[in-house]
Amino acid sequence: MEHLSRRRGEPPPYAERVLDLVERIPKGRVMSYGDVAEYLGEGGPRQVGRVMSTWGGAVPWWRVIRADGSAAPGLESECLARWREEGTPLRGTRADMRRARWDGV
């Protein structure tokens, strides 16, 4: 896999694949970082997290979350507001992964 440490310019091909998938996640649904990597068949949760933190601002980043249904640290309140707006199934302040997880089909 190509090195993802560049912070400027065009995202590398792996990052483009991650971002393309994230753009396809429907409103009210989520995928974990690991789900994204598994769906793509490459990378892992940390690589997906790196892509999202570096280039994810232009895609619905709140739809990619931790496997336990929680948002990335510091983004909890904004994620919760967006999840409520989109009708994402919740369990308290977390996405209900059993009901909200999108499998890519």
Automatic annotation (TrEMBL):
Q: Which InterPro entries match?
A: ATL_DNA_repair, MethylDNA_cys_MeTrfase_DNA-bd, MethylDNA_cys_MeTrfase_DNAb, WH-like_DNA-bd_sf
One Pfam match: DNA_binding_1
The answer on whether this UniProt entry bears the keyword Nucleus reads no
**Chaperone keyword on record:** no
**What GO terms describe the biological role, i.e. biological process, of this protein?**
DNA repair
**What is the protein named?**
Methylated-DNA-[protein]-cysteine S-methyltransferase DNA binding domain-containing protein
Q: Which domain of life is it from?
A: Bacteria
Bilayer-crossing regions:
none
Q: Which UniProt keywords apply?
A: DNA damage
Tell me which species this is from: Planotetraspora mira
User: What molecular function terms (GO) are annotated for this protein?
Assistant: catalytic activity
Where does the record place the Methylated-DNA-[protein]-cysteine S-methyltransferase DNA binding domain? 14-72
